[in-house]
Amino acid sequence: MSSTDGTDIQTLSVTVTGDDRPGVTGTLLGALSGVEAEVLDIQQVVVNGHLTLTVLLRPGTHVDQLRDAAAVAAHRLGLTLTVVEGTGVNARSRQGRAAVVVLGAPLSTDAVSLVTSRIAEHGANIDRIRRLSRYPVTTVEFDISGADVPSLRTELALVATSEGIDIAVAPGGLARRGRRLVVLDVDSTLIQQEVIELLAAHCGREAEVAEVTARAMAGELDFEESLRARVQTLAGLPASVLDEVRESVQLTPGARTLVRTLKRLGFTVGLVSGGFIEIVGELADDLGIDHARANRLEIEDGHLTGRVVGEVVDRAGKARALKEFAEEEGLPLSRTVAIGDGANDLDMLDIAGLGVAFNAKPIVQEQAQTAVNVPYLDSVLYLLGISREEIEEADLDDGTPTQAPPVPHAGH
User: Fold this and answer.
1) Which pLDDT band, with edges at 50, 70 and 90, does 411 fall under?
2) Phi and psi at residue 195, in whole multiples of 5°?
């Protein structure tokens, strides 16, 4: 920054460090307020109770008075003081804003070092670092500028693979704020099981159906053909088995927290499933979800016929549903988030503003914008810049019990 006559302005950077406690900022600024000066910038961070507070001033002719006032305040507070004179204020362009979110369990120093080095090699600058969660995973958000989001995403994907961590790169600034539509797959995403396998267990063909399901989710089989073949195995089952399956469905750890938090933010939530509306609809009602689309089983004389009714919700159908939900809500696709695990989710993950592969099949992780491989669905909230503390404070405010997410069942 330059003064109006084109010359660089004089600056004074006042930094105090030490144990954090209430009143530090007020005491320091109160001491400085007795001397005529202009505040140009102020930053504060607390890590594990250790405070770093920096005030950047335009001191005019009062450098010595400001030094003395800061020294008195720091001594009174028992903090370490650093004062640096300079000229000019960093006016670097803030274009190319991006948010880089790194998740790890654990998150090693080597991994963080590689992430920061790659950001620097990309030519971007880290403007701010914020911890979003300590448990059940460690999550750190880097607010950066000077980034090309698609290329940086590709570069950091290599780090994620080599270090066994998850990294999401998304546009920053206003693109990260405002209302969104979040659409989730159901089987092995919102819930831990595959509903068609639960149904097949009632006719002793679970293993057979599970094999076909795995191949379809890996992209080895046409989804519609595989669905019709699997549903055919259910022919003759009494419709009452649907009630039993509803009772046996288990939500993925963090699913309720994810939906509850999104709704608090005023977001719209939808479910799109290659499973069955008889189950998905009940889940949507229970969780207060706004939209639900899935296949419908044909039932005659109280029994399943082994057929589905109407158009099959396949890979293309999921993408169409996301588009239609967005249109109904008056939101552009750039304001949508899609979460899924199977090959039939790839189209909706691709067209969404943010596509998240959640504990997904290899083909999905390779093609999705970002992947989350921790077993807690509410970890997706961190990708949106929402911290664990914010989630728990909101729960506390309305009396919702808060606890660390449970360890998921094996096989999820």
Assistant:
1) very low
2) -60, -40
| 324: exposed, middle or buried (Cβ count in 10 Å: 0-12, 13-18, 19+) | middle
pLDDT tens digits along 291-316: 999 999 999 999 999 999 999 999 99
Count the Cβ atoms, other than its own, within 10 Å of residue 302.
8
What does the H/E/C string look like for 192-247?
CCCHHHHHHHHHCCHHHHHHHHHHHHCCCCCHHHHHHHHHHCCCCCECCHHHHHHH
For the chain, which domains are there? 10-87 (3.30.70.260), 98-176 (3.30.70.260), 181-397 (3.40.50.1000)
pLDDT at position 96 is 87
Query: Of the listed 143, 166, 187, 341, which one is catalytic?
Result: 187
Q: Clarify whether 395 is annotated catalytic.
A: no
Residue 412 has pLDDT above 80, yes or no: no
Q: Please report, rounded to a whole number, the percentage of residues in the chain having pLDDT higher than 70.
A: 94
pTM, two decimals, is: 0.84
Which of 357, 300, 293, 301 shows the shortest CA–CA distance to 328?
Answer: 293
Q: Which of 367, 396, 368, 397 is nearest to 380 (CA)?
A: 368
Q: What local confidence, expressed as pLDDT, does residue 7 receive?
A: 53
Token duo for residue 91: 């006016």
Decide: 391 and 377 in contact? Cβ < 8 Å: no
CB 406 within 8 A of CB 253: yes
CB count within 10 Å of CB 116 equals 16
Q: Which of 20, 166, 185, 341 is catalytic?
A: 185
Please write the tens of the pLDDT for every residue from 23-43.
Answer: 999 999 999 988 888 999 998
Which is nearest to 268 in space by CA: 179, 373, 140, 358?
179
- Give the three-state DSSP class for 191: strand
Mean pLDDT across the stretch 154-174? Answer: 92
Tokens encoding 333: 């696709």
Please choose, from the candidates 313, 311, 316, the residue with its C-alpha nearest in 3D space to the C-alpha of residue 291: 313
Name residues whose C-beta falls within 8 Å of residue 167's C-beta, 6 or more positions apart in sequence.
100, 101, 102, 103, 115, 156, 157, 159, 160, 370
* Mean pLDDT of the 373-398 span: 93
- 187 a catalytic residue: yes
